[in-house]
Amino acid sequence: MYKIAVLPGDGIGPEVVNEGLKCIKAAAEKTGFDYETVNYDFGGDRYIAEGSKGDPLPDSALSEFKDMDAIFLGAVGHPDVAPGVLEHGILLKLRFTLDLYINLRPIKLYPGVYTPIRDKGPEDIDFIVVRENTEGLYAGVGGTLKKGTPDEVAMQEMVNTRKGVERCVRYAYELTKNSTDRKKLTLCDKANVLTFAHDLWRRTFNEVGEEYPNVEKDYAFVDATTMWMVKNPEWFDVIVTCNMFGDIITDLGAMIQGGMGIAASGNINPESVSMFEPIHGSAPKYRDMNKANPLAAICAAGMMLDHLGEKEAAKLIDNAIATALASGKIKDLGAGRMGMGTAEVGDFVAGLI
Ligand code: NAD
Ligand code: IPM
Ligand code: MN
Fold first, then answer.
1. CA 226 to ligand 1 centroid distance, Å
2. Does residue 86 sit in the same domain as residue 121?
3. Which of 41, 76, 125, 266 qualifies as a cystine partner to 109, CB 3.0-4.6 A?
4. Which ligand gives the minimal distance to the CA of 80?
5. Burial (CB count within 10 angstroms: exposed 0-12, middle 13-18, buried 19+), residue 127
6. What domain count does the chain have?
7. 289-301 pLDDT tens trace
């Protein structure tokens, strides 16, 4: 019996999470695993209702999550809450406190899906980004001086620890080594400028790499990475990178795989509870309109089942998504352009499962 914490969150989060849950239910009925969900209403509405000064995610909930088998999250971010409050207070707090040190982001173009890259197809666009998820520019170290004056100073430091870099790089090597069709691991960095921080990444990548003689190693500066992702996406099998670069290149990755409506992620702690979510945000302008694409959330649900060991159920979900997309019935992956609503896309995929 799996226990799954569900955090629908803000904006389109609840709508897409509903469809993810619908597909988990269909897969469970088909393959016969048991699970229960516990719903948590953390997000902007609750924060505002509590006077906009409480803790958007109390520590008591965090300790409950530690006893769960997985967490399924929609998105956070609310137009009436200052930027950063919910992102830091909920999402980053979850990633940091639960030490979800890997952010796994597959970039996969399904057959039948439009990519803006001319002459590239599903055989070219199929790689995985391993994003470090607890350090780097996200560590929140820094401060301001003389704020609001002409002499204002703002500093936000990038934190890279040998331990944090090494466990991320090692995860990426293991992933590549254990894959049947991915042979190459590319380190995406900016070692030509970040001569302290990314020198640590390079040395760690090379040293750990000695333990993986059969993994082909490659290097790409982050600016060039964005170029290669558009020009020759087929060059990539697995990319390992720091927190901030991983954030940026995976929005680009989402676009080459069909858009924000399809890109999913897993925030992994290999030793403890992990969290799964679409990579998109709360897209508040589409809230409660039945226009958002739930496929990213459904893909994230599939990744969650795969992580839990329900390989058959995960495969069923993946196959159903592929069949739905190949059918041509979903006209476009953009919000309001699918030719059907959020719930109808969920019904369609669940029906195929
Ligand atoms: P966003 O991803 O919410 O939306 C950007 C655009 O992407 C939307 O306008 C829409 O055109 C498209 N889009 C997003 N999700 C879609 C879906 N399911 N189907 C179809 N199209 C979709 O990014 P934003 O506008 O930069 O951020 C909005 C809020 O979300 C902010 O508060 C931000 O901080 C937050 N955010 C949260 C997460 C998260 O919870 N993981 C991630 C990114 C942004
Ligand atoms: C993502 C998001 C988050 C990030 C924000 C909302 C904190 O953009 O999951 O990619 O920057 O990691
Ligand atoms: Mn992002």
1. 20
2. no
3. 125
4. 1
5. buried
6. 2
7. 999 999 999 999 9
